[in-house]
Amino acid sequence: METLHEERVEDEQSLAERIVRGAIRAYRLHPFDAVDAAVVAEVAGIPLETVERVFPTWDALLLVTYDRWTQLRGTRRKTPPSCTIEYVRMTLAEDIADPGLVRVLAGVITVASSESRFAELFRKRFEEYVEQLRVGLQRDVDGGAEECVIPAHQAATQLLAVYEGLQIQMLVRPHIDVLVEFDRAVHTLRQGWRRRDVHSWDLDEAVLTS
User: What's the pLDDT band for 11 if we cut at 50, 70, 90?
Assistant: First the structure.
């Protein structure tokens, strides 16, 4: 009986993986709002009833697809990034080659900002990414790879704003070279991170930093 149960569990896991792969392909082929369980079933070659049984709610399938797809990012990198900013730039370059993922990332913002029961889970994913950037930037500062006089969590928020903003630009203004714009924006960010605020009455410091 245990063997039969294990086989059924494995079958369910295999089905779930097949459905998620089908969802990724579907989002690569179609706009975000055009993908539903029927489209995923067709792309995966699985009956619609099976998709709805394995994933009874659409948000559950979307969440698992989101997690699986983002986990695949960076798996084919030949060299690791030298710092957090380079890591984000590499990710943006991968986004350019996989716009379907960017459509999903943009689409789940609506879910994350809603009152649905999955909203908190998607918001948690955003917070986790900000924390990942914060830890990376702090490590870069501690190791001398980055100079930053503001708290790492503020720098992480600014870096994420540039990255996500360029993702949107990539979708709606495809003629823009987002990597060039990223490099320009990061140059400006770094200048700001290295500059200490000078109070109007601190004339000596103002002279030294001018």
Answer: confident
